Amino acid sequence: MAIKRENGQVQPGIKWWRFTARVPGVHVGFSPPEIIQGGLLTTATAGVVAALTMKFFNVPFEVAWTVMFIQLLWLVAQSVVFGEPYAAGWITPALPLVMGFLAQFQAGVEAIHAMTALMVCVCAIFLFFAVTGLGSRFFKWVPVELRAAIIFAGAVSAFNAEFARLEEMPYTLPIVWGIVLVLMFSVWFTKAKNKVKALKFAGSMAMLIGFLVAAVVGPIFGELSFDIKMGWHIPQLGTYIEAVSPFSVGWPGLDLYIKALPLAIMVYIFVFGDLVLANTLIEQASEVRKDEKLVVDNTRTHFTLLFRNLGHLLMAGPFIPLHGPMWTGVHVFLVERYKSGRKYMDSLYDGVFNWYWPAFILSLLVPVVTFMKPLLPVALSITLILTGFACAYIAISMVKTPASQGYAFFVGMIISKFGPAWGLGIGIGLYLLLLLPGVPFSSRPGSAVTTEEGTGK
Description:
By secondary structure, this protein is mainly α. The chain is built from 24 helices and 4 strands.
C-alpha cells in the first residue's frame, strides 16, 4: 500500500538533486485498469523499435527484440527515478525525419554510426538548454512558420514511407489504416462514442484494435502468417550490445556529427512542442484535482531527457525513435482518467508507472513474441500513419495566411526531399524574404510591410 498523500501536497518520494524518486508499492500504488491496457498497448507499440532496429541496424529479430527491455527501463525511469508527471514516450513526430536520415546510409554499421551521431547531438542540445535554462527563449526565437514547416515535413516523410510499402501489403495496410483513423479521428464516430461506452472504449484501444484486425485480415489475403510457439524468451543483451553499441562498432567521425546537427535542432523543436502540450494538460488536470500538487519544471525535464537518451546510448547503443517527454495519446488518456477523481486514480504517478511495467513480463513470453513478430511492420505502419496525420493537421492549424501556408508547405517539402540542412538554410532565407515584418537590413521609416498577407502574421 502506497504512502497516503496529504491533501493538496506533492506525492511522497525520495528527493535527490532536482529529482524525486518514487518506489513502486511505497510511493506509488498499483492500478489494474492501467496495468491491463498499458501492458498490452506498450508491448505492441514498443515492439516497433525491434522492426526499426532490424531494418536499419541489420540485426536478426531475436536480437533486435532485446531493445524492448532497454527502452522499457528508460521509459519507467522517467517517473520512477526522475519524478516527471508525464507518460514517457518517444520523439514520435521526428521519427519519419530520422528514418529518412538513416535511409541515406547502408544498413548496419554505417546507419548505427549515423544514429549515434544524431543522439550525441540531441544530448548536447538537451545539456545546453538544461544548464542555461534557455529552452523557453529558443522556442520563441523559431518563427511559428518554420515550426509548421518542420512538422509538415514529418507528415510528408511519414506518408511517403508508408505509401511505398503498399506493394508489400496492398490489402492489410489500407484496411488497418482506415479502421484506426476512424477510431481516432472520425467526426461521426466521435459523436457516437460520446453516447455509447463500448464505442468510447474501442476508441481508446484504437492501436490495439488495428493490430488485431491485421492479425485476422493479413492471413486471409496471404500477406501475414503466424508461427506461435510456447516458452520464455531470454533477452540476448550481450549479442545486442556487441552488434550496435559504439563501444563495439566504433564511434562516428566528425563529418557525421556535422551532418546530424541540423536534424538534431529540428528534433529539439519537436520536443519543445511536446512539452508545451504536456504542461498544458497538467495545468488543466491541476484545476480539477486540487488534492495533488503536480510540479512542472522544464529544466528538470531537460536533464531527464538528457539522462534517458545518454543512458540508453552508453548502455546499449543508439535508439532510433529517441526518448521524448511524453507518449501523447497515452498521456491524454491518463490525464482524463486522473481528472475523474482520486478513487479512480489516487496519483497521476500511479497511472504513468503502471502503464509500462507489465510489458516487461509480456515481452518475455514466447507466445506474445511470436505473435508480435509478423505484426511489427503493421505496428510501425500504424505509428507512422497516425504520426503523419497528426503532424499534418497540427502544421495546417499553425499557419493562417496564404503566404505563411505556402511557405510552411514549400519548406516542409524541401526538408523531406533534400534533408534538414538544406531545409533549415532555405527556410531561414525564405523567411527573411517572404515573412519578415520589415524590409530586411533596412531601418528607414515607412519600410515596414504592413499587409496581412505580406507578413504572414
